[in-house]
Design a protein that fits this description.
Number of helices: 9
Mean pLDDT: 75
Radius of gyration: 45 Å
Helix content: 55-70%
Structural class: mainly alpha
Low-confidence stretches: 1-28, 154-173, 286-317
Strand order of the largest sheet: 1-2
Distance between the termini: 120 Å
Strand content: under 5%
């Protein structure tokens, strides 16, 4: 049995040797382990990689939508609060007049800026037209005439029969200031109409001032003079306004005189108010100044009418009273050149741009106080 197994084992070892290499000597046996089979429950790597981005990609879109909705809701709430604040400011005649005052003078400034821009554009256009005319004139033959029509934007172009080459500039462009100027004039008319009842407010303010007079005799005299000036100015303004609308039969020169004297009494009122503020600063006293003692023409009825406005001792320690004192002073200083301007015929002493800027200063001061009182 031993002899039968030996040749078989020798043959198998020889075959392994021949299959491993050319060497006749047998080499060591190489054992390669087989890979372990993956468990059936383990997820595939590719599936795990693709599932994570899909889950992450849905979150940013949902977050952005929520943020957009939250911001939109916040903006709507803010807008609602501002609109409600403006509604409270417009809920009284004094608040409406203050808003119209600021709007009117702001539009006057805008009109002047637009007109200056139009004038600059017109000068550039005329300069360009002159250059083109000079260029065309050099090419004319003896005896030929060049006719150029330069159209102003404020008037329609003129028609001319021409048998020679013509250079035409500009066009039928409507002025941009016409609509803005019309809106400013409409607001001014509305404000004057609402002041037709200003005499009643002045009367109530005068009654309050005489019932609760100031302790200082100089201040009492100044307040009384202010009331007289306010009554005269408002009466003349009412008559001139009604005459301009053909309710009162006054001639145009008489209307102009009434407007001028109304402005002069207003200027007197402003001067007296400056003296009153100076006296308060000097003596440091308490004074009761009626809201309607300030001219309705000056749009100072934004002071909680028809009650009286209390101006306490003007001391540096009282910030609120001192701030109110300075506000009244700035308003009077802005109104002073305007009253002089409207008192001097025929065109005043300052430009229309200066009128708009000074009035805008008053409008800003009055709007700031109105906005603070209607919080």
């Amino acid at each position: 049995m031993a002899d039968d197994t030996t040749p078989a084992s020798s043959a198998s070892s020889a075959e392994e040797t021949n299959s491993d290499g050319a060497s006749g000597e047998p080499g060591p046996a190489v054992v390669v382990p087989a890979p372990a089979p993956a468990p059936a429950s383990a997820p595939a790597p590719a599936a795990a990689v693709t599932a994570v981005p899909a889950a992450v990609s849905r979150r940013p879109s949902a977050t952005y939508a929520q943020q957009a909705r939250a911001q939109l809701s916040q903006y709507v709430q803010q807008a609602d609060g501002q609109i409600a604040h403006l509604s409270r400011a417009l809920s009284t005649p004094a608040g409406t007049d203050t808003v119209l005052l600021a709007t009117h003078y702001g539009l006057l400034v805008l009109v002047q800026l637009l007109e200056r821009f139009d004038q600059r554009q017109r000068r550039r256009m005329l300069s360009r037209a002159a250059w083109l005319l000079a260029k065309e004139a050099r090419s004319l033959r003896p005896g030929e005439t060049l006719i150029a029509t330069i159209t102003d934007h404020a008037s329609p172009p003129t028609t001319t029969t021409m048998t020679t080459p013509t250079a035409t500039t500009a066009g039928r462009r409507q002025p941009r200031t016409r609509q803005v100027r019309a809106l400013a004039a409409l607001i001014a008319d509305v404000r004057i109409f609402h002041r037709l009842w200003g005499l009643l407010a002045i009367w109530r303010g005068a009654a309050t001032a005489f019932r609760s007079p100031a302790a200082d005799g100089v201040v009492r005299g100044l307040v009384a003079a202010q009331i007289v000036a306010s009554l005269a100015s408002q009466a003349l303004e009412n008559a001139a306004y009604l005459a301009s609308h053909r309710v009162v039969r006054w001639t145009k020169p008489r209307q102009d005189r009434a407007w001028r004297w109304s402005a002069r009494f207003w200027a007197l009122h402003v001067l007296l108010d400056l003296l009153r503020l100076w006296r308060l600063r000097v003596v440091g006293m308490s004074a009761s100044v009626p809201a309607s003692a300030s001219l309705p023409l000056a749009s100072e009825l934004s002071e909680k009418e028809p009650a009286a406005k209390e101006l306490g001792p003007v001391r540096a320690s009282d910030d609120a009273e001192l701030r109110e004192w300075w506000r009244q002073l700035y308003v009077d200083l802005a109104y002073a050149p305007l009253t002089v301007h409207w008192s001097v015929p025929p065109h005043g002493v300052v430009s229309q741009l200066a009128v708009g800027l000074l009035g805008s200063v008053v409008g800003a001061l009055q709007m700031k106080q109105l906005w603070r009182e209607t919080v």
